[in-house]
Amino acid sequence: MRNVLWAFLLAIAQGLFAQECRMAAVNVLSSETHQPIPFQSERLHASLGKAPLAITNLEKINGNRILILVDVSGTMSNKPLPEMLDSILQQAPPDSSFAYGFFSDEVLLSEGFSDADQLRKALRQIPGLEVKGRSRLYDALDRALKLFQGPNPGDSILLISDGQENSSKISSGAIKREMLESGVRLFGVIMPTVGSDAALPSRGTLPEEAYADLPDFRLLSELAEKSGGAIYPLTRWRGSVLQSIQKFWMEAVGGGYLMTINVPQEPVKPGAFTLRLDRSGDKGLRNGYVTYQQKLVSCSRQGRALH
Fold first, then answer.
1. Beta-carbon neighbour count of residue 290 at 10 Å?
2. CA–CA separation, 163 vs 165, rounded Å?
3. How confident is the model at residue 127 (pLDDT cuts 50, 70, 90)?
4. What is the pLDDT of residue 271?
5. Rounded mean pLDDT of 84-105?
6. How far is CA 268 from CA 16, 47, 60, 96, 298, in A?
7. Among the listed residues 298, 295, 60, the one whose alpha carbon sits nearest the alpha carbon of residue 184
8. Mean pLDDT computed over 162-181
9. What is the pLDDT of residues 13-64, one digit of tens each?
10. Rounded to whole angstroms, how far apart are CA atoms 143 and 140?
């Protein structure tokens, strides 16, 4: 009888303590400036359902794969694309590799990832792109995700677009499932087309609120939030915006932290994992929010090469 009891208790203990190492890319950004803000790791609290999880490690992401995806459809004709691309290409996140793509009626992607110098050289050799046609935004995201071929935590897509979709073969539901299953973070510098300057939000209105009724913008915002990325919405173009976009590019798209946790060895249901930022007692975190990958990946991916 005693042996049976010990076997029963051992089985329970194994079920309770059998855990698996999982990782997710995280960052803390300002809801006002969309820039990363400093925080202490103790401010992050992870949970699986109602059960708290211990964060075993938090380290800066040093090098990831980044794909720059640029909208050149007709609605982008009055947008400052050359200035924005020049601003982004002036600096590049160190130790990262890069790919690029353009889309309108067609989708054009680079063959793979290369270093920053090769990226600049390739983009300068591309003849002047004509900004015209319809937008295959979802098809472009679909093709971009396939270029990663087994993403690592921290891999990112930077989308430069007005967020409009009107010509893709793939549906919004399909690209949503694919994006969130991929493990790639979606970042966006989004310049919504709202008809005229008169329709732009008044000073003090958050862009997210002003464009909340645009379905494509809402979908991109949801994909960014649930993939661990972020949206930088532009309403008015000013020269000073370039510096802010450069910081967003270098420290958000090309940065963040790799968080390691141990979870029970059982399937993690979508939405069951949550990460909370404790803002109490820290004025610097008053407008902060945590962005994180809701799909956890195995720690075995960490050693995979970036190139």
1. 20
2. 7
3. low
4. 61
5. 90
6. 15, 11, 25, 30, 12
7. 295
8. 94
9. 444 557 889 999 999 999 988 889 999 999 999 998 888 999 999 999 988 9
10. 5
Residues 6 or more apart whose CB falls under 8 angstroms from that of 59 comprise 257, 258
Beta strands (DSSP E) in 152-240 are: 156-161, 185-190, 230-233
Q: Judge whether residue 274 has pLDDT over 70.
A: yes
The residue extents of the domains of the chain are 19-61+256-303, 65-253
Q: What is the mean pLDDT of residues 214-242?
A: 86
- Burial 29-54, CB ≥16 within 10 A → b, else e: beeeebebbebeeebbebebeeeebe
Whole-model pTM over 0.70: yes
User: Which DSSP helix (H) or strand (E) runs through 296?
Assistant: none
Q: Which CATH superfamily is domain 65-253 in?
A: von Willebrand factor, type A domain (3.40.50.410)
- Predicted local confidence at residue 105, as pLDDT: 94
Rounded CA gap, 87 and 89, in Å? 6
**SS3 label, residue 22:** strand
Alpha-carbon gap, residue 67 to 155, rounded angstroms? 9
Nearest to 39 by CA among 220, 218, 204, 285: 285
User: 238 vs 13, 146, 202, 242, 251, CA distance in Å?
Assistant: 61, 35, 16, 8, 21
What is the spatial distance between Cα 41 and Cα 11, in angstroms, rounded to a whole number? 34
Residue reference for tokens 């050799």: 125
In 3D space, the residue among 162, 231, 154, 149 whose CA is nearest the CA of residue 192 turns out to be 162
